[in-house]
Amino acid sequence: MDKITYAGLLNKTLELYEKNGSLKAYRYITENAEKVKGNQAQIYNFRYSLASASGLEQEALQILDEAVLENGFWYEYDYLIEDDDLKPLHKYDEFQKMIKLCKEREESAKSGTQPELKILKGSNDLDDQPLIIALHGNQENSEITEAHWNSIVSENNILALPQSSQIEFSDGYVWDDVEKGSNELKLHYERILEQNNVDPETVIVGGFSAGASVALHSILNDRLSAKGFIFVAPWLPEIDEWDGLLHKLSEAGIKGFILCGDKDEDCFEGSSKFAKLLEEKNIAHQFKVVRDLDHEYPENFNQIIKEAIEYIRES
Length: 315
Known about the structure:
Elements: H1 6-20, H2 22-32, H3 40-53, H4 57-70, H5 77-82, H6 93-112, E1 116-120, E2 131-135, H7 142-149, E3 158-163, E4 166-169, E5 172-174, H8 178-195, E6 204-208, H9 210-220, E7 228-232, H10 239-242, H11 247-251, E8 255-261, H12 268-280, E9 285-290, H13 301-313
Parallel strand pairs: 2-3, 2-6, 6-7, 7-8, 8-9
Antiparallel strand pairs: 1-3, 4-5
């Protein structure tokens, strides 16, 4: 049996929910929750929501209690109030107590959350080290991104991992405001160049899902300079609006590498459209489609990313 990944666990749970209902989805994620590394707050969220939707109210309350009281997680108050799956829990005093606590934690977190940047370097501190910036997807964080991209550090690249200041729940960050995200990325980029031995001609910007949208927006709006980009399952809802700016990629000699699974219902169509626009405008790029892959990284991403970097940096 293939190893279950964090994204794969969530994707399969959603698939079961849509096809077989909440109870089967709940049993699946509960049986496999401890087999993956990822945002545990999100896994708890799936579990208590599905338990509630399945009529397992006391079980749902117990899971929410464990998440909020024992582990210190929090979830958006509006979501907890408005989500239909959680409506059966509203009558319990315990639920009302926990959503009040979540609201307090949410207000504190959203008033104090700042953009963060983690930098990883290889053992050789060389002059003019190549730089790769990788952005997380929505409801993710830099730690999740690091797990997928850290293999390139051993190749003497500097890996920079920005984390959005826009937080949705415990350890779940989003890029809902693309303009704000681009401005944060610009500040990160300038700071990296200031504090590290980086060759600006080697910079590659990468991103997963919504992180790719922020990366592309930043390039097209001159927030940073890059030699190329690597987008994994890119979420690009505004690509039609940005069509008129894509000429900047060819003018600057920027090359692209797009990777997406053919089972990715959220992003495959948009990725294909983006690749077609690049082709029409004669912008150098590769579009790699992974068969039977949903909205996640492929198992052999370590090898694919090396190929992508070589393609972008070749003359």
